[in-house]
Specification:
- With 243 residues, the protein is of the alpha/beta class.
- Helices cover 45% and strands 13% of the residues.
- Helix 5 links the parallel strand 4 and strand 5.
- Helix 3 crosses helix 8.
Amino acid sequence: MNNKNKIKLIASGITLCCCAAAVGAVSVVSSRNGSGAAPAAVLQDEELPVIVLDAGHGGFDGGCVSAEGVPEKGINLSILLRLRDMLTLAGYEVDVTRDSDVSIHDSGIEGLANQKSSDMDNRLALFNKYDNAICVSIHQNQFTDPVYHGAQMFYSNSDSRSEQLARSLQSSFSELLQPDNKREIKLCGKELFLCYYSENPTVMAECGFLSNPEEAALLNTEEYQEKVALTLFNGINSYVSGK
């Protein structure tokens, strides 16, 4: 069985799990392997890309904040850890910029602005470390009008694969988790440092709006964070399999 067929089998299985999650049946995933992660499917194929995951913000940088005072940094991290476990069980090599509530700036750097600059440089170095990688930076959105909601993907201009990855992730959200989501993917600008300067296919995944009270409440629950992770997982698998 070639690499693409193996991935398609995994993607099919994960799609079922994502559909179950989208209707509130995350327990289906747990029942299959006795844990909260996705079903294991071990692959031993060198052609698989390395998946680099970034949980936006961290440490002194909380990111945007919900009306209830919940910063996005913890939500981003929770989704990343769940997604990392799913991808690892599926046979991918996964690397992450952070796995705890920290800034990853170099030691000895003083001043918040300098620490933030160092932190971003170190994240970018990991994004560009591998020749065969796809990169996903997990974030939450915010806007002055609380009516806006839904995930939206921003992609880098490194090559056409970034756009393809963004479409796969956006489609996964609209098909499996947010059926009313009609948002379009967007090309990032220089203000999205990691996305813009990454040399690998890269997407910044804005998973929802913390400025929307209903969506913020969902994003602050472990159940919904699991659903978001499963949705991202499905989108990554669909991209890798070329579906």
